[in-house]
Amino acid sequence: MVIDWEWDVPLQHRRGSPKRLDGIDLYFDFEWSEVFPDERAQFKNGLSLARLVRADCPEGKTPGLLLTTRDVEERIIETPSHFVAVINLPLYLATASPDAAASYYAHHLESGITGIARLHQLAARPDVISAVVDRQLDLEHIATWAAGNVDRIEQLRGIAGVADSAGETVDLAAVVRTLRALDALDPEITAAIEGLLRRDIDKDARLRLLRVLTEDPTGRHVTTEVLGERISERLGDARNVTRQYSALLADSHSTETDLQRFIEENPWLLGLDYVRIRPRRSIPRGQADFILERHDGVHDLLELKSPQDPIITAPESADGVPPPAHAFALSPDLARALAQVHVYRENVSTDPATVRRLYGLPNARDPRVIIVIGQVASLPDHRSRVLREVNLSLHRVEIVPYDVIADRAQTILDNVERHLTASQA
Question: What's the gap between Cα 89 and its chain centre?
Fold first, then answer.
């Protein structure tokens, strides 16, 4: 992370969700997981805010949001290279009403006729309005809006009919049975909601619904039954992730950033030892690509290099005879990464109390380090053998080619499927 402005406490950086924050750069001075336990790079009504800042950003500069939980002056930080809106996050979330992004942005960051003009511009922005509706509308609002009103219930039925005619079929039988068990909902409203749910509602709306349905023992029991019925489909979803990862890896236009985002969205690819992944974390004298939290609470470091980087350099073998030992070398990219991660590890191990206080990293002493670089498929056999020996000689450092991640994930899924098949036999 390279910034050309001053901030009085350490800043962290991550990329906003492409869908929910338009992929905008996020800078923040708090522990992300303490504010957002799900660790996702998004927040309520963030998409419209990100688009407004991006639209205001002068050509040639990089737009961004600087999120803070402290009582500081909200303003625009404009430098030769950046255009960053400082946002008081608790205050912003508290004002989450229709047109929240535009009204908040206009009130705090603009004034006079400029702010009024922005609100008029918003009225002509169906994408922003759709984003606000998408983030605000949930089943509770629908039920409250329709309760006791025959005309509105008929409108819901009409929406359900449109959704059905589009040919969309979603098996929500278990959800509907649970909804019907709730005495608070009128049967007609339940029937209308059943049709409405056949639409492609977003992940957050589904999460809210499932949390309501699993609040009591009965709801948790039936949810477990449904998940058990979906095991083969869930495995299929995971296999699809590995195929997408392999396709991204095979694409010559894919960058380190593309793969980093994919791994951030699918952290299980790194292995089942880890319960949480924290992307782009500031640490003393540098920034690690990922901090990985293991099941025992200990944190490891993950450093990503390019999938196109060489790993071991050596001439091609002649007539099956490998070159002499002096012809082998670590690639410059790998050598630099090895030196870099050892500096990181030494820094976080020297003063654990300070690291925890300033960077929110408990149990960071002597972390294991994983360097992801290159692809083993591109290595001739004599160079891949040297890579194996290098890994055997390293202490708490492992060099993992990008394509090995896909192979490991596929093996995990194969083993899980064999176990489930055997248990069902």
Answer: 19
Range list of β-strands (E), 338-417: 369-372, 397-400
**End-to-end alpha-carbon separation of the chain, Å?**
53
Query: In sequence order, which residues have a C-beta less than 8 Å from that of residue 85 and are 6 or more positions away?
Result: 49, 53, 64, 65, 66, 74, 76, 77, 105, 109
CA atoms within 13 A on the CB side of 292: 24
Give the C-alpha separation, 212 to 193, whole Å: 15
Contact 397, 338 (CB under 8 A): yes
Tokens 């609470």 label which residue? 297
**For each of the chain's 425 residues, which pLDDT tens digit applies?**
667 888 988 899 998 888 888 889 999 999 888 888 878 888 887 888 888 888 888 888 999 999 999 988 888 899 999 999 999 898 888 765 545 555 555 555 544 333 434 444 555 555 555 554 555 555 666 666 676 677 776 766 665 554 444 444 444 454 444 444 444 555 555 555 555 555 556 667 677 777 777 878 887 787 777 777 777 788 888 889 999 999 998 888 888 788 888 888 887 888 777 777 776 555 555 566 677 877 777 778 888 888 888 999 998 877 778 888 999 999 999 999 898 888 877 777 666 665 666 556 666 667 888 899 999 988 888 999 999 999 999 888 999 999 999 998 888 888 888 877 665 55
d(CA 236, CA 241): 9
Query: What's the CATH class of domain 252-412?
Result: alpha beta
Domain ranges across the chain: 12-135, 138-229, 252-412
